[in-house]
Amino acid sequence: MSVRDNIREVAYSLYERRLRHRVAVSHPPRHVGVILDGNRRWAREVGLTDPSDGHRVGARKIVDMLDWADDAGVEIVTLFLLSTDNLGRTADELEQLLEIIATAVEGLAAPDRRWRLRVVGNPDLVPAPTYERLAAAAASTEGRTGMQVNAAVGYGGRQEIADAVRKLLLRHAEAGTSIEELAEVLDVDHIAEHLYTSGQPDPDLVIRTSGEQRLSGFLMWQSVYSEFYFTEAFWPQFRRIDFLRALRDYSDRHRRYGG
Q1: Catalytic residue among 6, 53, 64, 86
Q2: Do 165 and 182 meet the contact criterion of CB atoms below 8 Å apart?
Q3: DSSP strand E in the chain: where?
Q4: What is the 8-class DSSP label of residue 202?
Q5: Predicted structure pTM score
Q6: Is 163 a catalytic residue?
Q7: Cα angle, residue 205 at apex, residues 125 and 193 outer, rounded to 5°
Q8: Residue 92: active-site member
């Protein structure tokens, strides 16, 4: 390592320490959503011939980020791992991606981890063998008391709302409620009760890597009052400093609800 690199590392270390202190004395977001974007572009940028290698490196980054969130006092993290749009990729690419995701989620559920897992998304859109692995990993974490981690797989915001309405209608149909009677009482809380994240608070902060400034359908319903943080770093490049900057930015904002 050159002298310049040593100086850069020392400067980063000091800056990270300052950020950690700044975040420690502020009120952290309770729920953070993360769009893990830029794996393929990072792979191309560093000269990897297989784009899936970018996803593999990105998968290893997840544990680091969850540790950072845990240290900061975040209670819930929702990870956007596979969108409904991603399901349209070539069969070979999708097969590799599903294997990477399933392996990563199983790793998060390992006995030496403290996190509680929940799979959010439409299970009917994910190949059964993959979903069974995801569900088994989540089930193995029941009873843990650590941070809640939502793995969004086969997830789309519009799909989630459609599924919530469908569940709502079926439940009332089974109870003998007529459409007219349902229309009389239907409100946003009834729909929210049937979302994939039901029972959890909405995200306070949504982070997206890779420089893209859109949600791509991520937590569309839940993020109506969320704060957003976009960073140019590709997901495999995402550092603790980047995460702390997002928390600092969040703490500096005056949140407004509907105004």
Answers
A1: 86
A2: no
A3: 31-35, 76-83, 116-120, 148-155, 205-208, 227-230
A4: P
A5: 0.90
A6: no
A7: 50
A8: no
183 confidence band (pLDDT: 50, 70, 90): confident
Query: What residues have CB less than 8 Å from 45, skipping those under 6 apart?
Result: 234
Distance between CA atoms of residues 122 and 226, nearest Å:
23
Span 196-222, pLDDT tens digits: 999 999 999 999 999 999 999 999 999
Share of the chain above pLDDT 90, in %: 78
Domains of the chain: residue spans and CATH: 27-252 (3.40.1180.10)
Hey, what amino acid is at 191? Answer: I
Ramachandran quadrant class, 121 (left: phi over 0; alpha: psi -120 to 50; beta: rest): left
Amino acid at 127: P
- Token pair for 182: 């349902």
Token pair recorded at residue 206: 């949504």
Of 37, 53, 202, 242, catalytic: 37
